[in-house]
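pinging the channel bc i need a second pair of eyes. not urgent but kinda urgent?? the chain im working w is below, pasted from the shared doc
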Amino acid sequence: MDDATAALAGNTKKYNIPLSHFEHKYIQNCTDGKELERIYKELISGEIGSFPALEQLTLDRIQDIKPNSQTLRKDKVPLDKSALPNDERQQLDDFLKEMLQKNRTSSIIAKDHQNNGFDSVPIRSKSIISNSITPTSSAPVINSNGKQKQIVPRSYDEWGKLDQQLSKDLSSDNEDDEVDDDEDDEDDNNDKDEKTSSFINIYCNLN
């Protein structure tokens, strides 16, 4: 409903309330809590003018008909500590100090428990590790002329020749060991024969 239509009909624009309801007698006898709330909102909006006496009467009727109405709730200014009596203000200060001390103690205990009572070693970063570890280079090979000799890696053929030479050396060592074992066996047999002959000679002389 637009302003012109509302004016011709004799109703308010926002809630479409008849202007005749904004009278002392009607408000005093009204038992509809929702309508009283709408009347009060229209009154404080100033749309139909300023009527402080009707505003207070409407609030009183809302209090009687609908005491839990949100219209009766007013925002209260937060209570400042300076407004408290001296003893209550002192109790509040002591309580806040006690809570602050408990929080500090809890933080210290939690940190000590996390570190198991020992100061934790700071974690080394990647840059520190890379700077502390430097690659070591092997000592250069110097030839007879006093110049640094360049080491060339061996080819597969050279490694094959070294392998064959090593196999030959191992084979010759095994053959030498076998010859030594045979000679030792012959020496042992000769010693046995000599001992047997000596025993026979001694036995014959005794007889």
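so Residues 1-8 have pLDDT under 50 and may be disordered. and The two ends are 165 Å apart (CA to CA). — does that match what u expected or am i reading it wrong
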